[in-house]
Amino acid sequence: MKRIISIVVSLIILVIIYWKIDFTNLIEIFQNSNIYWMIVSLCMVVPITTITAWRLQQLAPKQAQLSFGEANKLILAASVLNMVLPSKMGDIAKAYFMRQQGHLTGSLSLSLVVFEKTCDLLSLLLWCVLGLILYPYKNWLFWLMTVSVGLGLTLGLLLLSSRKFAQIFFVFSKAIATKKLKVKIQKMQFSWEEMHNYFWRDRANLLKIALTSIFIWFLHLLQIWFFILALKAWTPFLANLALSPLAILAGLLPLTFAGVGTRDAALIAFYQPYFNASTAAALGLLCTSRYLLPAIGGLPFLGQYLTTVRNLSQEK
């Protein structure tokens, strides 16, 4: 039922967007797009996926014997589930898949994926803060978002770097959570503590993973800027560093189907100083392709992945 509601919400938002914009102009924008930049921007999916798979391989302990090919398969298979699960929860399912394949224990595999997603989120927030600080057209709303994103980044860094702060955070979260949610927070706290024990033992590898995550998200934001060039529009790259992460964060809200609708609306609102709503809607379609193309690549592995998740559901 939640999935049906999210699809309905996405459709309602899209209907409102396409009812208000000039649909003919949208078609013309794609027809007149720069083919060279369109090919380059869409092909950016390949290096982003392969570098992300390499990072996953580096995260896994050597005894796990996770090959580069298997890491790619995990990334692509998770991309399929990310299209239908809220807030990129398909990535969390990688932990269960690795456990089922015998690469890692259940708690360590979950810790690994939690750390991976934490690095992703903090890297995105880092670029967003940098872009928002340099963004020239800040009104009260953008100042509020700058402070909010900055606080989120600070909180995440404290949770990642300070074991004592993380313990206080989880104790406080359990104190105000519902009974059902307390169980999930308890599991997360255990995985977080194991993550601290595992990753802080090798600080050189930790630094390598952090820098790789920052670079991966630079490629993500660069790809969106290439999309803008492909549409023969223009936004300063530093402004794009502020605006595109905000749209991505809007798409992560568990309100719509794979972020479709909320992400498109955010792009239209945030990029209004640089181009019209039709161009922003076209950019929204291209941004959706960033998730759709890896998902198509992961379809050959979907059967095996779903079988694993189904077996785990039966265990519960």
Please explain how this structure is put together:
The chain is 80% helix and 0% strand. α4 crosses α5, α5 (68-82) crosses α6 (89-100) and α7 (106-134) packs antiparallel against α8. The chain is mainly α.
* Poorly predicted tracts of residues: none
The counted number of beta strands is: 0
Mean pLDDT: 86
Largest sheet: none
Radius of gyration: 20 Å
Question: From the helix content, strand content and strand pairing, which structural class follows?
Answer: mainly alpha
Shape: globular
Strand content: under 5%
Distance between the termini: 21 Å
Q: Treating each run of at least 4 consecutive H or I residues as one helix, how many helices? A: 15
- Could you give the order of the helices and strands? HHHHHHHHHHHHHHH
User: Helix content range of the residues, please?
Assistant: over 70%
Write a brief caption for the model.
The protein has 316 residues and is mainly alpha-helical. The protein has 15 helices and no strands. Helix 5 (68-82) crosses helix 6 (89-100).
Characteristics of this structure?
globular; 316 residues; mainly alpha; single chain
